[in-house]
Amino acid sequence: MQTFDISIFNFIHQFTGRILVIDWTAIFFAKYAMYALIFWGAILLLREKNWVKKYYAFAFGVLSVILSRGIIVEIIRFFYFKQRPFVVFGFDPLLSQSPLEASFPSGHTAFCFALILGAFYLNKKSGLWFLAISIIVGISRVYVGVHWPLDILAGAIIGILSGLFIKCILFRDSKKYSTSSLIKANGG
Predict the structure, then answer these.
(1) Residue ranges of domains in the chain
(2) Cα(81)–Cα(184) distance, integer angstroms
(3) pTM for this one?
């Protein structure tokens, strides 16, 4: 797997420093896109008129992120330390990152992918945009030199599985807690 990781990393990272606009775009996505997703998610929540759906979407996103980035990624990093590419190859990354922080798995990617299912729950089109941006975030983290491709893949899997786990918890009694059943129960 290490040969695969190095080959894919070298293929993506070889373009670094050639076109300044691409470098800046990669830096933006690698560092700031997750904040843009949070902002976009907040707008989606504010525009949602159904308060039950709004509540579940908020809980869905927050709990998925806490589980993926705040718990699983940190546990893995505590027990397994993998050096970042810029440390291994001895170059300056486009993005400032501590060489003492573990590379595996990607916390940014886990965070972004954890938000995808919540976005799909609110709006399918937004969910597709969240997916596209999350993929770009992952590729950008490799491009700027702070992650290996397998770090990104692991982060994406952790984010998606965390979202699916939270979905199972939140919606295990979906008929019991659906909007229509609540309206009927309240004499509507």
Answers:
(1) 33-90+100-173
(2) 53
(3) 0.87
